[in-house]
Amino acid sequence: MNLEQVAPCPLALRYLHDGFETVDAAAKVARKEWEDNMGEEIPSTFRGSESSLTGPWESLVLSECSPELLFLAGWMTQTFFLVDDKADRRSRKEAHEQLNMPLDHVFRIVKLKPEPATSMERLFLPRLRQMLDYDYEGASLLFEGWRDWLQQADTRDENTLESLEAYLKFREMNVAFLPYSHLIIFVLRLNITREERQAIDHFRNLAARNFSLINDYWSWAKEIRESYEGVQRMMNAVTMRMRQVSEMESLQIVKDLAIECE
Predict the structure, then answer these.
(1) Gene3D superfamilies given for it (predicted)?
(2) What is the pLDDT of residue 52?
(3) Band of residue 54 on the pLDDT scale cut at 50, 70, 90
(4) N or C: which end of the chain has fewer CB within 10 A?
(5) Lowest mean pLDDT among 56-60, 136-140, 241-245
(6) CA distances from 81 to 47, 70, 252 (A)
(7) Nearest in space to 15 (alpha carbons), one of 58, 67, 46, 59
(8) What's the Cα-to-Cα distance from 100 to each of 110, 149, 186, 190, 201, rounded to whole Å?
(9) Could you give the dihedral angle defined by the CA atoms of residues 160, 166, 167 and 170, in that order, rounded to the nearest 10 degrees?
(10) Which of 200, 149, 208 is nearest to 179 (CA)?
């Protein structure tokens, strides 16, 4: 049975919660600007923050922010999903050097107000300047978080991680929960000190681990298929656990670990 047939409440939520149309519009703009500036079509298999049950999840969890900031949050989320999708289709080294570092450069130079010279600059600079115009100090902190993540992301792969625990520790960072938490603080206009942010590090890391495990469990079939087809590189907790046990046992272990995190 289709899950949507037995989930009438979430389906109603999709259309009733504030911001659905705003984030939906932001996602469409992000897709168009990606194709216009990056000069490439988005793969038909791409999925961003869309959900057939609830609609875009940013409009559900960030429903209290203004339409202007909700649009920016939706645009940033969708665009970073597009960056991530492209990174998955590159080697780790290519992803880090050809995507992460050029994007890190954009965050570094945005305050200098340069004329866009690359496709990545043309795509990101206008939106980042909007954020600076809205709240210079808050946007600066947000950019700092994204730069820290970009410099570390895609610096390791399965071959350089000796165990499932080492993999999960790396994924806690690589899944981008820290920079995204800065985005949430920015768009919700929250006044939170660095000390207060550090006080929730354990919770955020646990949430990041849970998200990674759930993602790896449900995307396993797609990832293994596309890995065999040479479409994307493999980076999954199931593969890591399969060094010791079978595929079915690995899937169950990953599922159990996700439930334990919850």
Answers:
(1) Farnesyl Diphosphate Synthase
(2) 59
(3) low
(4) N
(5) 56-60
(6) 8, 16, 27
(7) 59
(8) 16, 9, 22, 28, 24
(9) -90
(10) 149
Q: Residue for token digits 């600007």?
A: 33
Neighbours of 243 (CB within 10 A): 11
Q: Which two tokens stand for residue 209?
A: 């681990």
User: Tokens standing for 250?
Assistant: 């690995």
Per-residue tokens: 136: 């210079």
Domain residues of the chain, as ranges? 1-89
Q: Using CA atoms, how far apart are residues 6 and 13, in angstroms rounded to an integer? A: 14
Q: How many Å apart are CA 198 and CA 145, to the nearest integer? A: 13
Q: Left if phi > 0, otherwise alpha if psi is -120 to 50, otherwise beta: which for 157?
A: beta
C-alpha 43/C-alpha 37 separation (Å) is 16
What is the 3 state secondary structure string of the chain? Answer: CCHHHHCHHHHHHHHHCCCHHHHHHHHHHHHHHHHHHHCCCCCCCCCCCCCCCCCCHHHHHCCCCCHHHHHHHHHHHHHHHHHHHHHHCCCHHHHHHHHHHHHHHHHHHHHHCCCCCCHHHHHHHHHHHHHHHHCHHHHHHHHHHHHHHHHHCCCCCHHHCCCHHHHHHHHHHHCCHHHHHHHHHHHCCCCCCHHHHHHCHHHHHHHHHHHHHHHHHHHHHHHHHHHHCCCCCCCCHHHHHCCCCCHHHHHHHHHHHHHHHC
Amino acid at the residue 54: T
State the Cα torsion 98-111-189-185 to the nearest 10°.
Answer: 30
Q: What is the DSSP letter of 166?
A: H
The answer to whether the CB of 43 falls within 8 A of the CB of 85 is yes
